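Quiz preparation item.
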């Protein structure tokens, strides 16, 4: 099956799914068949249904949500056909008032789905499967843009030169969402440190230390950038913090 045909199937799946998802349809309505249809008309209609949703084509669909919808649509169609194409089953179905209805599967709560994607992405990251991890984390962000997800995906992307621009964007978003958190600023410092953009790197490490004076990575890298002639640089940052927050630092004992 070529790419254009797969695109057609995906479009048909999504269109049909959303047409039926909030409706209760009996088997005749589901297949678009009159309740007085002949056996030949039933056969022809089911063949048209299979042409619209070719069995096996889901193996070429990458989106898991579309795969699930395709499976539901096809199974529901087969179930409908098996009932109304069999004389005795059809008679029993009609006798019961067309009451053998299948339910549309409930879609997963979006926030829970985002959390699951984040957990799976983090697990892949811990197993050093970085690109699959990025993919899952980006899916999570598309549903629920959270700071910790932006931070993790940005940190992973730092290791790929072609993704460092996206890494910067994601880390900046994490910093924007949690301006009190030193970690996004430290991660941005590392990003520019590895790019050898040391001035920019120094600025982010300074910001990280302003937020967390004990941040070990920011402190160590800042000393490396300063070199042997500027070992007082961390002290300068800490003095700046003390001047900004006199009520926390340097209280006089009574």
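Solution:
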């Amino acid at each position: 099956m070529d790419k254009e045909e797969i695109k057609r199937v995906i479009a048909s799946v999504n269109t049909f799914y959303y047409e039926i998802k909030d409706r209760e349809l009996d088997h005749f309505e589901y297949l678009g068949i009159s309740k007085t249809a002949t056996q030949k008309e039933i056969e022809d209609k089911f063949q048209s249904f299979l042409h619209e949703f070719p069995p096996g084509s889901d193996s070429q669909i990458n989106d898991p949500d579309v795969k699930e919808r395709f499976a539901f649509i096809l199974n529901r169609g087969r179930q409908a056909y098996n009932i109304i194409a069999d004389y005795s089953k059809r008679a029993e179905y009609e006798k019961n008032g067309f009451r053998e209805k299948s339910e549309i599967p409930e879609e997963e709560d979006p926030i829970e789905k985002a959390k699951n994607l984040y957990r799976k992405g983090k697990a892949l990251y811990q197993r050093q499967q970085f690109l699959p991890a990025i993919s899952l984390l980006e899916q999570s962000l598309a549903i629920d843009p959270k700071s910790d997800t932006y931070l993790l995906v940005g940190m992973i992307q730092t290791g790929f030169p072609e993704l460092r621009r996206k890494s910067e964007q994601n880390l900046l978003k994490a910093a924007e969402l949690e301006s009190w958190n030193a970690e996004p600023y430290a991660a941005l410092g590392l990003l520019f440190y590895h790019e050898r953009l040391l001035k920019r790197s120094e600025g982010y490490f300074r910001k990280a230390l302003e937020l967390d004076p004990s941040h070990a990575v920011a402190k160590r890298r800042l000393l490396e950038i300063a070199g042997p002639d500027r070992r007082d640089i961390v002290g300068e940052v800490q003095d700046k913090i003390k001047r900004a927050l006199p009520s926390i630092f340097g209280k006089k004992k009574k």
